[in-house]
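Researcher: Before we compare anything, I want clean individual predictions. No alignment, no superposition, just each chain on its own. First chain goes here; please echo the sequence and then give the structure tokens.
Model: Echoing the first chain and its structure:
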Amino acid sequence: MRVRAEQSDPASVQADVLAVPIYKDDIPLSGDLAKLDAAAGGVIAEAIEWGEFNILEHYTALVDGGSLAVSRILLVNGVRRGRGAWRARRIAATATRRLQGHGVERMALWLRDGEDEDAFSAAVVGARQGTYRPMDVYGRVRDTDAMKRSVGEIVFLDVPGGQQLLDRSDILADAVEWGRTLANRASNDLYPEKMAEVARTLEEDGCSVAVLDPDEMRALGMGSLLGVGQGATHDPRLIAIKLPGWDKASDDRRLAIVGKGVCFDSGGISIKPADRMEEMKHDKSGAAAVIAAARAVARLAPDTPLMAVAPMVENMPGGNAQRPGDVVKAMNGRTVEVINTDAEGRLILADALHWAETQGATHLVDIATLTGACAVAFGELISAYFCKPREWGTEIQAAADATGEWFWEMPLATEYRPSLDTPHADIKNSGTRDGSLIKSAIFLHEFVTKPWVHVDIAGTAYLTADKAWSPKGCVGTGVTTLARLAMDYAAGPKPRA
């Protein structure tokens, strides 16, 4: 899909379809929307009055273009959140998904309301997300050529920043879709060794890539990470991708992004229910996000002092699998009693985070499909995060807001730390169910000493059903936020007002 900036009046733009967001306050029509409707011969008002489009019931309505140069007008629900990147990203995704299979060569998108550069950048990402087809990963013989047709070109009207902004945003959008496909790949196709091969492709973008095998991790004392993967046929790997800027950075400015990479999570001995276990191929979404973000930043700002770390394992109930009651020793010297083998993500992150610090990371972010409790609490739209100190958390919140992802800070209530006490080790990997979302972050807190953010994307990493803006499956959560955070971080601390 091509993206192009054009300074044009929406009433005269040349395209197959003009996508127009409709907001709650737009009805009855007024202002710029009423002017467009008049130029079209009243077709928008007619569609609303006839009930073809209702802001409370419909995501889209495709109506005749009337007197305009376009063949059709696509009315798109402007959703209920305020203006900005989140809304623009959702509108664009909904528009291109609605037109999937229709053979639209050229769609114009009029965001209205004088949106800023962040909103247009997010809209480019959203537009690509709306055309994503998960079945393309492995192919489906029942697809017709028509089903595969996506919008060929999107014309964005009145873009601040012009074509240069769209071109840079398209690189970011490509990374989101690439990471999304990594997360969607089946476990028999993408296992730890294969993910390492994927990571090595970033050497073409100027990155240095190191892959630690089990013997190297054992020598470093990564017992927490290795214990998770000991029952699987495919051995663990630790992937580290450093951008060119990592070695050039000053000693106090290096960012490491760490992603949970469980290629398949059966739960181990504490096995999961069979229902929906197939979704556990998505438990590598955090690793996919950090690798994809690294690729985007390497192409946009290679001098960024960034390292992406992906601990990759399979959590399987083999004959040599980790057992409840086992005690492992993490790289930082702490011993961990494994109460629940299905609380494995925090075990691999513990060693990966500490290892990142030994490599010179001064600031850390981890991203993980970590807890079912997060999905229960926040659903599919909102990612929870924890931070220390809070000033570092505001940086990732700003990056999420700027790129159209919805993050929400949760309290790092260290008062719950005693619930992870055990007489058999320094800490146990799972406590009581009450407050379990917070307690998972408190566990990770034991393994970091630098400014750190933990992002739980258990609910937002993948959709369990088709939506108007996306098909089911992984959606590339976190890629844009991590990339924006890294590039803003490279620019240095901002002066306080």
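Researcher: Okay. Second chain, same rules.
Model: Second chain and its structure:
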Amino acid sequence: MQPAVTENYKKNILANLPEGYYPLMEKFYTIQGEGYHTGKPAFFIRLAGCDVGCVWCDVKESWEASTSNLISVDNLLKAVAESKTPNVVITGGEPAAYNLTKLTDALSKKGYKVWLETSGAYPIQGTFDWICVSPKKFKAPLESVLQKANELKVVIFNESDFKWAEENARKASDVAKLFLQPEYSRFDRVIPIMIDYIKRNPQWSISLQTHKYLNIP
């Protein structure tokens, strides 16, 4: 399966979004299950549209943006307010494909902490309290985005991904928190080599997708 977001996506969706609207796949209130903020309550805004195309992506339904409903910033703010959480995660898909300035400005004015989850393949537009970059080989991250990362989270699918992690860590900011995360379907295969690797390279930590064990979104 290849991403449905091609030239049509770039020309017709990115360029023609009504001001203050975004293509929404889903929104939900849950517990952050992975990375630095694991265990914290957060409202997730999952925007539709992605042309990165990870073969092991567990949310492939987020790739197509043209069939998604558009939602206004005002309606997103109302949904977040109902959750009572101080934390908002903007994810995808690939959310950085969009200019997120209006959304992040509106959330920040209301006092929310705004966290971004991105592959780093697009320049970041918007203001964030935390940026998690999860670089993918299928569409390499921009070095300018890696420099902005508070958190670098690399998915480990096979042993060659350790080299990929090291390459991106060298380009990231010195203050970025470094995480390796097992690809869920290959957990039993990769977790032993991850443990060995991190014991030899203690600048890295393990991130687990705890939400899958908790059976929450």
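Researcher: What stands out in the second chain?
Model: The chain has one domain: 7-214. Additionally, Residues 137 and 146 are 14 Å apart (CA to CA).
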